[in-house]
């Protein structure tokens, strides 16, 4: 270990965009400038920071790789303006050996030169990850650099998650521990979900303590398609204790000191950690929506307002993320809509300052039914009539979207999406789902929290207390087709997420479901839910992306066949 003066390290918890090389370069140059102002000697960026994470099959395109190299050359030249700084950046690098043509690489840049290169050794292919599709695993063992007589070890994300050698035959900590650097820099693009921060702390702090290696964990922030990155970078000392942690869901350029014995926070450092799950979920979805809209070129969103809890929560979140002036709500009452579907929507939109338009569909439904009977000599009734109403509403929303340029937000929750309690080409229409990874009981909790947080009634009490209903048939209630959500959600958690749940949540769901299945009636309901989940994969495959909040979300994190025997 070194016995020299303090090393000043800058972390760049930034929000890069996939493929935006010019924009990502400007972010990197700004970080250099701020690090220089803070007299940093080491500047650390996240994983694949030059191209953004995760590029997917863009990595197969030669033009994408060429632009990545051009960006690297420009940044390397730019680094000459800050000769006192060594920067750690991530980007794809070509491989000349057998296997995949690329490495997920970390590069150390100093004064116009690349002084070290490290290739990610452990490539995840689980949940939302598919890195082995594009990258070849690194075979270098430990790589380190010397900065002001300090020895700094290098690591990339997944390399730090296999200290028990449970998932891969290689444990990169072993080579690092043998090399004995003063501390380790780990660059990351670690997606956010409920419980992820605690999981990171447990894994990284445990490894730091076992190997007596201080670790600086730098993570990216921002929304990329359905995934949100929370940042929440942190530094842990050799005793396994966190020296400091940076805020979640914020871009940060900040410094800390390292001296023999560990990391030291700057004198002005103040911790700003989120202390409850509801605030975490809200900020997570807000950031995901904000970045998705911005990066896809939209300025406004439009939501169908039913007067129910799902659309109310969607509208409230959108107003916080984009400003109420950029959210449009449309109420589309039918012959089966309650009076509250319009009046409660109006109360909600008034409280938020969101404009509400009315487009009744009763006449459209009647005209469609008349023509249906004329054409097919049969009456439109039952499920066909119910789905028609949902599809007419979806058509109206899409027509408004085409006319105004506002993106449609779909309003389905995870409970309904799981069992197919939704209408394809109707309420599944849209560009993004905000609450599609929240179970119905969680929708109610987050809605109540929004009111509590604002210290006023944003989401009307009438919406929070009315029995859930699609209002597509006379006196319809969700419980006509589904068990109570308090029951359904526990079954769904166990079936969809299982052991990926936090331990306490898994045990709660397991115990509840075991007791529920102890009766013949409960077992019958359980088996019906199993079948409903399987049969409705085709709907989920055609639905818009949803913002991932929980450990296992629909989409890339749960890949199931449509045609299969269950």
UniProtKB/TrEMBL annotation:
InterPro entries reported for this sequence: C-N_Hydrolase, C-N_Hydrolase_sf, Gln-dep_NAD_synthase, NAD/GMP_synthase, NAD_synthase, Rossmann-like_a/b/a_fold
One Gene Ontology term of the molecular function aspect: NAD+ synthase (glutamine-hydrolyzing) activity
Active-site positions on this chain: 47 (proton acceptor), 120 (for glutaminase activity), 157 (nucleophile)
Pfam families, sorted: CN_hydrolase, NAD_synthase
Catalytic EC class: ligase
Species lineage: Bacteria, Pseudomonadati, Pseudomonadota, Gammaproteobacteria, Methylococcales
Ranges for domain CN hydrolase: 7-265
Annotated binding of ATP, by residue: 304-311, 411
Chain sites annotated for binding deamido-NAD(+): 387, 416, 539
Record keywords, A-Z: ATP-binding, Ligase, NAD, Nucleotide-binding
Organism: Methylomonas rosea
The protein's name in its UniProt record: Glutamine-dependent NAD(+) synthetase
HAMAP family: NadE_glutamine_dep (MF_02090)
Function: Catalyzes the ATP-dependent amidation of deamido-NAD to form NAD. Uses L-glutamine as a nitrogen source.
Ligase in keyword set: yes
SUPFAM superfamilies: Adenine nucleotide alpha hydrolases-like, Carbon-nitrogen hydrolase
Keyword Transferase (UniProt): no
PANTHER family cross-referenced by the UniProt entry: GLUTAMINE-DEPENDENT NAD(+) SYNTHETASE, NH 3 /GLUTAMINE-DEPENDENT NAD + SYNTHETASE
Its EC number(s): 6.3.5.1
Pathway in which the depicted protein is active: Cofactor biosynthesis; NAD(+) biosynthesis; NAD(+) from deamido-NAD(+) (L-Gln route): step 1/1
């Amino acid at each position: 270990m070194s016995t020299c003066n303090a090393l000043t390290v800058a972390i760049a918890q930034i929000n890069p965009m996939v493929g935006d090389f010019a924009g990502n370069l400007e972010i990197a140059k700004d970080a250099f400038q701020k690090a220089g102002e803070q007299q940093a000697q080491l500047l650390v960026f996240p994983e694949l920071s030059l191209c953004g994470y995760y590029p997917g099959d863009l990595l197969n395109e030669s033009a994408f790789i060429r632009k990545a190299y051009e960006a690297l050359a420009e940044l390397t030249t730019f680094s000459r303006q800050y000769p006192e700084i060594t920067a750690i950046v991530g980007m794809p690098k070509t491989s000349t050996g057998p296997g995949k043509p690329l490495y997920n690489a970390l590069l150390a840049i100093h004064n116009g030169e690349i002084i070290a290169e490290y290739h990610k050794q452990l490539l995840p292919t689980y949940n939302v990850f598919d890195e082995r599709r594009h990258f070849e695993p690194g075979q270098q063992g430990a790589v380190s650099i010397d900065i002001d007589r300090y020895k700094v070890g290098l690591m990339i994300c997944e390399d730090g998650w296999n200290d028990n050698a449970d998932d891969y035959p290689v444990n990169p900590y072993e080579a690092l521990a043998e090399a004995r650097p003063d501390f380790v820099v780990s660059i990351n693009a670690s997606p956010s979900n409920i419980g992820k921060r605690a999981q990171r702390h447990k894994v990284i702090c445990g490894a730091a303590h076992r190997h007596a290696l201080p670790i600086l964990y730098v993570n990216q922030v921002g929304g990329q398609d359905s995934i949100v990155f929370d940042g929440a970078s942190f530094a842990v000392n050799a005793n396994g204790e966190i020296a400091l942690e940076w805020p979640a869901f914020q871009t940060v350029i900040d410094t800390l000191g390292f001296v023999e014995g560990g990391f030291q926070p700057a004198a002005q450092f103040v911790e700003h950690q989120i202390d409850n799950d509801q605030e975490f979920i809200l900020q997570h979805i807000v950031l995901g929506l904000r970045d998705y809209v911005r990066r896809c070129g939209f300025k406004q969103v439009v939501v169908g307002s039913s007067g129910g809890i799902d659309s109310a929560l969607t509208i409230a979140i959108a107003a916080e993320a984009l400003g109420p002036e950029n959210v449009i709500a449309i109420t589309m009452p039918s012959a089966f809509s309650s009076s509250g579907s319009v009046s409660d929507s109006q109360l909600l939109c008034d409280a938020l300052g969101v404009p509400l338009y009315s487009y009744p569909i009763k006449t459209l439904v009647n005209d469609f039914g008349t023509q249906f009977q004329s054409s097919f000599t049969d009456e439109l009734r039952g499920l066909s009539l119910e789905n028609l109403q949902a599809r007419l509403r979806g058509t109206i929303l899409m027509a408004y979207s085409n006319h105004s340029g506002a993106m449609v937000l779909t309003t389905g929750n995870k409970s309904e999406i799981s069992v197919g309690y939704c209408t394809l080409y109707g309420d599944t229409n849209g560009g993004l789902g905000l609450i599609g990874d929240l179970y119905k009981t969680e929708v109610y909790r987050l809605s109540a929290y929004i009111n509590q947080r604002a210290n006023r009634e944003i989401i009307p009490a009438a919406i929070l207390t009315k029995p859930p209903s699609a209002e597509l048939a006379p006196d319809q209630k969700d419980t006509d087709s589904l068990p109570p959500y308090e029951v359904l959600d526990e079954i769904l958690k166990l079936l969809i997420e299982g052991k990926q749940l936090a331990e306490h949540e898994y045990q709660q769901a397991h115990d509840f479901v075991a007791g529920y299945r102890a009766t013949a009636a409960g077992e019958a309901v359980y088996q019906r839910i199993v079948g409903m989940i399987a049969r409705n994969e085709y709907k989920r495959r055609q639905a818009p992306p949803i913002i991932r909040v929980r450990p296992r979300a629909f989409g890339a994190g749960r890949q199931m066949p449509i045609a299969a025997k269950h």
